[in-house]
Design goal:
heterodimer; A: 291 residues; alpha+beta; Translation Initiation Factor IF3; 4-stranded mixed β-sheet; 4-stranded antiparallel β-sheet; 10 strands; globular; disordered N terminus; B: 320 residues; 3-stranded antiparallel β-sheet; 7 helices; 9 strands; 28% helix
């Protein structure tokens, strides 16, 4: 239906869609009432009960780092990703799809941050961003953000440049190590780019059959898409006034679009240094004897 | 086949079957001083380090069924969700009874398996090692007990700087019985995780679970989809699934509170889509280990950075 077959005619009315003007639905339906009720119970001053999907190791390390878990927070958005026509033989970014992937993740993240805000959190650790597909929705995906809201035990503020709780996809172990190393997380930063990689013409395919040769079109397309995703991630990091981005992952996925349309997602945690005179405890070198 | 038994013995085959089942159900506890456990030697040492000893392998099972076709009716999905937690609850109650009959305090390293059978039957089984606080007055003393001491104690170094972690969680209670008014604890956490928790000043309270099912008639989902070529959020579906997860979490939290917990760790979300001609549904099951603080309060584990000089070290820096 999304037609990587190039001969697919473009229906009237869509042909005029300029890239980048993909309509986005109005204000997001925020955090549902059930969530607010749960969060208020979780943080009830009388008998607070925290929940967390951290493992025991991670949970104890987060406590070691001087934080206490407050509760599991999440955000979700089921999003219909629109259609955008592609040309068989032209490599190009599909702005409308990029926009959809951005917006849907943003909705999920914002809701998760709102939940963290309700709990009075300083940050969210161990954030996972997942995309789920359900049988009942073609070109529909659910975007989920889920993590553990934490608060500094000494009452210091860990909010980022946007005045929001920090977010990070680092595990409890990495979070502890990051603080040991003298850095503080600022926020999850991501950049995405949905790219259509052109098919090769039959002439070109025949000409290179059996030869060892670079296919410059493909190289160029993948290169370009990755660079765009990375640049956007860096822009987000700059907006948070981060000094660096750690734990960057570059994920390539075709989702429901077929082999020639690929999402390039760059995702990492923006960090700042805590203080200039921080001393990192030297790691103890060990050799294990059980190998 | 005749219902009369040969030899003229009294009772129908059904009676014999019941007797055999009853015999199965009341497996004899091991002799005093002998324990049965599926834990590794290293794990037994870790239990010993925090003052616990294994007693026996214990298990529990439960089952439930429901009718998914009525689940989209008002209130129907609640019955479905209740069936899921009901199966788990039955299994949990059964394993708790076994723990009590062994004079143990709780059960660790529980293997939890939920299986779906044909005809919308869900079965749940639990299998774990029942443990209790060590009953010898000196804790892990020099006397040799069958099993642990010979295997683990001499070869394993016990760092002196962890002495505070070896303190018994409740020095006053060494009876090995569950204190009055407190249910035995159960946890899916490994003996290793149990060791860490106890050292850091926590103890497991039990397995906490909550389920919710969101169901909608099949056609309403299809309506309005595929008609538009625009990007848009499906707000109704978003809200429904979001809510189901929140309800599952809230139910899990309520269970944890009932167990007197201060928190729930290691929460996992299981989501199972269910599709039929008439109903689309998603089951959400949140499950975790409820924990509570022990009297001593939080104790630091004082972890240190270490750098393995083994050749596989670069793997350490690769993200999973």
């Amino acid at each position: 239906m999304t037609g990587t077959g190039g001969a697919e005619p473009t229906p009237a009315g869509v042909a005029g869609d300029a890239p980048g003007t993909a309509p986005v639905t109005g204000p997001p339906a925020g955090v549902p009432a059930d969530a607010l009720r749960r969060l208020h119970e979780t943080g009830a001053s009388g008998a607070p009960l925290f929940t967390s999907d951290l493992s025991v190791n991670e949970f104890l390390l987060v406590e070691e780092a001087g934080f206490e878990p407050l509760g599991l927070v999440m955000g979700s958005s089921i999003y219909q990703i629109g259609l955008q026509t592609r040309r068989w033989s032209r490599s190009t970014e599909l702005d409308k799809l990029t926009q959809a992937m951005y917006t849907a993740r943003e909705l999920a993240m914002t809701r998760m941050e709102e939940e963290a805000e309700v709990l009075g959190a300083d940050g969210v650790v161990g954030v996972r961003l997942d995309v789920n597909y359900y049988e009942w929705g073609k070109s529909t995906a659910e975007f989920i953000a889920i993590g553990t809201a934490v608060r500094a035990r000494d009452g210091s503020s860990w909010r980022n440049a946007e005045g929001k709780p920090f977010t990070s996809d680092l595990s409890g172990q990495d979070f502890w190590t990051l603080l040991q190393a003298g850095f503080a997380p600022l926020g999850l930063v991501l950049g995405t780019c949905v790219y259509h990689v052109a098919h090769r013409s039959i002439g070109n395919a025949l000409a290179t059959t059996g030869r060892a040769t670079e296919l410059p079109n493909f190289t160029q397309a993948l290169y370009d898409a990755r660079e765009r995703a990375m640049t956007r991630m860096e822009d987000e990091a700059q907006r948070l006034r981060a000094e660096g981005v750690v734990g960057v992952q570059l994920v390539e996925k075709s989702h429901m679009w077929g082999s020639h349309t690929i999402e390039f997602l760059a995702i990492g945690t923006g960090v700042r240094s805590l203080r200039p005179d921080h001393v990192v405890p030297p790691p103890v070198p060990v050799v294990s004897m059980d190998r | 086949m005749s219902t009369e038994t040969p030899n003229g013995a009294a009772g129908s085959p059904a009676d014999h079957m019941r007797a055999a089942v009853a015999q199965l159900a009341t497996r004899h506890a091991p002799e005093p001083g002998v324990f049965v456990s599926d834990l590794l030697v290293g794990e037994l040492v870790l239990l010993d380090e925090v003052g616990y000893e294994p007693v026996d392998l214990v298990s529990g099972a439960g089952a439930a069924s429901w009718n998914p076709q009525v689940a989209s009716a008002p209130g129907g999905s609640d019955a479905w969700a209740a069936a899921i937690t009901g199966a788990l609850g039955t299994a949990r109650a059964a394993i708790e009874r076994e723990v009590v009959t062994r004079s143990a305090e709780g059960v660790v390293a529980v293997q939890l398996s939920l299986a779906r059978r044909p005809g919308n039957v869900l079965t749940c089984s639990l299998l774990g090692t029942a443990v209790r606080r060590q009953q010898r007055p000196g804790g892990a003393g020099p006397e040799v007990r069958p099993g642990t001491a010979g295997a683990g104690a001499p070869g394993v170094p016990r760092p002196g700087d962890h002495a505070e972690g070896r303190g018994r969680a409740h020095p006053g209670q060494r009876s090995g019985h569950v204190p009055a008014g407190r249910r035995p604890f159960g946890t899916t956490l490994s003996a290793r995780d149990f060791h860490l928790l106890v050292r850091a000043g926590y103890e497991p309270a039990g397995i906490a679970a909550g389920a919710a099912v969101v169901a909608f008639p099949a056609r309403s989902v299809g309506q309005g989809l595929g008609l538009s070529r625009d990007n848009l959020e499906l707000q109704e579906q978003t809200a429904a699934l979001y809510q189901a997860r929140e309800i599952a979490m809230a139910r899990m939290e309520a269970e944890a509170r009932a167990q007197g917990a201060d928190g729930v760790v290691d929460v996992s979300f299981g989501e199972q889509p269910f599709n039929s001609m008439l109903v689309h549904a998603v089951e959400v099951l949140a499950i975790g280990t409820a924990i509570r603080r022990t009297a001593g309060g939080h104790r630091s584990l004082e972890p240190r950075l270490q750098l393995a000089l083994d050749d596989a070290a670069p793997d350490v820096f690769r993200r999973g």
